[in-house]
Amino acid sequence: MTTSSSSTSFDKLDLAVLRLVMEQPRAGVREYARLLGVARATVQSRLDRLVKDGVIDGFAPRLSPAAMGYPVLAFVHVDVSQERFAEVPRSLAAIPELIEAHSIAGEGDILCRVVARDNRHLEAVIERMINTPGVVRTRTEVALNARVPHRVLPLVGVLERETGVFSG
């Protein structure tokens, strides 16, 4: 994932492109251009800039771990020995069921998003995490149900309001 270090300014076309990419991800550049009433090259150059600036960080499909046989979702807080902090994330990345990890402020050092086939499998994954050199302790919270799924499109709406651009 690319992170933009500077703030990108958006115009009406940028925001319209972002909205289309989120709402119709499979449509393609030619269809976006048709819907926006601009040249295909214009849309392509906007997409290229948004990718370069880190606003768009990928075009891969979102896969469902649950539909792939991993219905258990847990968040694991990992306390790390500070002298091994740099190597622990690399070691944890070798665990395929660990699908995301962030260093955090607050309780723990790293917050991991982990999936498993069932609770017994989750226990085995957590045991593998605990046995990672440099991991001092873990605390696990099992998710019961997604109340607000991952989303970014509402942020496009905020930017549209802030810039005076309103989509229909």
UniProtKB/TrEMBL annotation:
InterPro entries listed in its UniProt record: AsnC-type_HTH_dom (IPR000485), Dimeric_a/b-barrel (IPR011008), Tscrpt_reg_AsnC-like (IPR019888), Tscrpt_reg_AsnC/Lrp_C (IPR019887), WH-like_DNA-bd_sf (IPR036388), WH_DNA-bd_sf (IPR036390)
GO molecular function: sequence-specific DNA binding
Cellular component terms per the entry's GO annotation: cytosol
UniProt xrefs under SUPFAM superfamilies: Dimeric alpha+beta barrel, Winged helix' DNA-binding domain
Pfam families in alphabetical order: AsnC_trans_reg (PF01037), HTH_24 (PF13412)
GO biological process entries: response to amino acid
Sequence ranges assigned to domain HTH asnC-type in this UniProt record: 10-71
Keywords: DNA-binding, Transcription, Transcription regulation
Protein's UniProt name: DNA-binding Lrp family transcriptional regulator
